[in-house]
Amino acid sequence: MFDVELPLFVETVVLVVDFTIKALAIGIVPENRRPSSSSAWLLLILFLPLVGLPLFLLLGSSRVNNRRHRIQAQANALLDDGLAHLPTVPPGLELPPGVESMMALNRRLTSLPCVPGTVEEVLTDYHGMLADIAAAIDGATRYVHVQTYIARWDEASDPVFAAMARARARGVEVRLLIDHLGSRRYRGYRRTKKRFKEAGFTWHLMLPIDLLRLRWRRLDLRNHRKVIVVDGRLGYVGSLNLIAPHYGTDVPGGTKREWLETVVRVSGPIVASLESVFAVDWYTECAELLDAQTYLPEAGSSPDLAIGGPVNALQVVPSGPGFQTQPNQRLFTSLIHRAQRELLIVSPYFVPDESILEAVTTAAHRGVRVELFVSERADQFVVQHAQASYYTVLLEAGVRIHRYPAPFVLHAKFLTVDDEVAVIGSSNMDMRSFGLNYEISLMGAAGDMPARLRRIAAAYRGPSAELSLADWETRPWLRRYTENVARLTSALQ
Predict the structure, then answer these.
(1) Two domains, one topology: 66-104+113-312 and 327-434+441-490
(2) Angle CA(161)–CA(162)–CA(166) in degrees, nearest 5?
């Protein structure tokens, strides 16, 4: 309708700028990036430069600032020095074949050795685990350290936060770390902050965004860790956020979703490893250095605990943008390739990179019984469809996919290998957890943690519906298209 011709000079400038953007993208985008991620970014920039370039400048870098890298490097050096007298694996311990080399890998990447630890409880009842944590805090005499991705002081989390307030009132040191954007997205955030202040304990935001103070970073670089330490004697790690199990959300028909979680309570020397992760994050956010003699008294000791039964050989594996080696992804890949008989994966967000997908499908082709437990309906639209885009290749390889029925969200995160090794923690089995989120995982062997987590997976299997390849192939074309778009979007890491 409007045929406007641009001056030749303007057309030339536009063409030169367009060509320059694309030429630079081809040489810059792939640097230190997975092939799938590079391809996704390049497609977006080459075909939609006005959209792709601003997004890449805003979200394209998975690096945190140099200060965070420096702090993590310094922390690793201190751990290497302070724990140099400890072997990677407790002496005399007989581990399943190949496991000791994985623990050596973990130590090289994170500086934390394998130590004994008692898995006192594996908790799955949502309100029960909150009550358990509250009881532990009520028993605190020296300090309480809590770190979580999402915190909201509501009717469900009240026992924990009220216990923290009581602890502070009786003179116990109480420190809390919460992720800024992880918590801010839920209703009641301002009221929660106000109640924290009134309670009197010390708290800080992790990875805060504050434009007025020039505190800016990629928005989806988040601290997703969930760790609780009480007096250096008890530790909790798993998938639980401190919020009501419905997260304040509804689904069609007025029914509330309900998140299902799994958390382990541990004691013994392993608690010092959990404390060290908290201490690094605490220093990173508020520059307060926690005294090692006060808060890590067991870091250099290994009491004579006979490993077996509830006493496991345990190793904490932190990961995230502060590390340049993706420790969790390397651990998961190594464990999956090690599987000989059975591999159970429980993950709310299974969006694998090339190495994880190849490892899982190869295990299935090798004859390993591979079972994947996911939600029938995830709580995030893009993740739901990106995850579903992998189902065909998984089913064709022989992976059994169990979908836990809605409105439940199966948010537990663990895997077991051959009833011999297990990992539980905050890390999803997706590219975001491998490269963008700070995560924490707990690996256990030579004790009963793998068997106890296998029993939980069996309980999830009961109400779940197993997906068949024949049924899956009947889904409509539009859904397949949506899945493929979501898959491409998920690769923009």
Answers:
(1) yes
(2) 115
Buried b vs exposed e over 479-489: b needs ≥16 C-beta within 10 Å? eeebbeebbbe
Nearest to 206 by CA among 68, 86, 104, 97: 68
Tens digit of pLDDT for each residue in 361-399? Answer: 999 999 999 999 999 998 888 889 999 999 999 999 999
Q: Whole-angstrom Cα distance, residue 218 to residue 453?
A: 35
Per-residue model confidence as pLDDT tens digits over 10-45: 767 767 777 777 777 777 766 666 666 666 667 777
| Mean predicted confidence (pLDDT) in 168-195 | 95
**Contact (Cβ atoms closer than 8 angstroms) between residue 314 and residue 441:** no
Residue linked to tokens 């500086």: 111
Domain spans of the chain? 10-59, 66-104+113-312, 327-434+441-490
- Residues 39-56 have a mean pLDDT of 70
The pLDDT tens digits for 74-93 are 888 888 888 888 899 998 88
Q: Are strands 400-404 and 115-123 parallel, antiparallel or unpaired?
A: unpaired
Cβ(228)–Cβ(86) under 8 Å?
no
Stretch among 53-62, 240-249, 427-436, 472-481 having the lowest mean pLDDT: 53-62
- How long is the chain? 493
**Which tops the pLDDT comparison, 253 or 220?**
220
**What is the assigned CATH class of domain 66-104+113-312?**
alpha beta
> CATH: 3.90.1150.10, 1.20.140.150, 3.30.870.10, 3.30.470.20. Which one for 327-434+441-490?
3.30.870.10
316, β-bridge pairs = 442
What's this model's pTM, rounded to 2 decimal places? 0.90
